[in-house]
Design a protein that fits this description.
Number of strands: 6
Radius of gyration: 16 Å
Helix content: 25-40%
Strand order of the largest sheet: 3-2-4-1-5-6
Structural class: alpha/beta
Order of helices and strands: HEHHEHEHHEHEE
Strand content: 15-25%
Largest sheet: 6 strands, mixed
Number of helices: 7
Amino acid sequence: MSATTSGKSGRKIVLWRHGQTSWNLERRFQGSTDIELTEAGVAQARRSARLLASLKPDAIVASDLRRASATAAELAALTGLTVAHDAALRETYAGEWQGLTHDEILEKYGEQYAAWKRGEPVRRGGGELETEVADRAAPVVLEHVGRLPGSGTLVVVSHGGTIRTTIGRLLGLNASDWEGLGGLSNCCWSVLGEGARGWRLLEHNAGTLPEPVLGDDD
């Protein structure tokens, strides 16, 4: 969907990664495992929510995993909006990688990891392809943004890998180039704006001074 086909322009999508979890700190691949926020993660969400509330969003949609839904709840509390939850916004299912640390993945699946970093289509741990993640997540984002007023803002609360693949799909980039977008730090966000030629990346990994990207999809 683009401005030229929808008849609406000026809409924005804020793609917000969840706050910190204990598995992020351990650099342990979470994937679809349902891990809660740490106390620091809750504090991150509250701080970021105050900034995002100033954008006066029109709608919030979030992954149904607890780390994303708890992050979204902080923004909902400030804006009075109701969060729509959708399992299609979950993080990449990564099969046997899930629960492993970064070093363990390199030790056990080094060739698979290297192929993924090269931009090859890889089922990490026997799980989903990145294109399959985009296939399920991007339509949900477009469905919700399609309900916005002409200059409305949608906040999507999701996960590092899912956000990156969704951005790549909405920008029309080749899947092999999605890695070039880089990861998001906990509770940072990226902003897409709608223009005459479709979606454009306005901000990436915004929300704080540069910090290390911890956990999934770094």
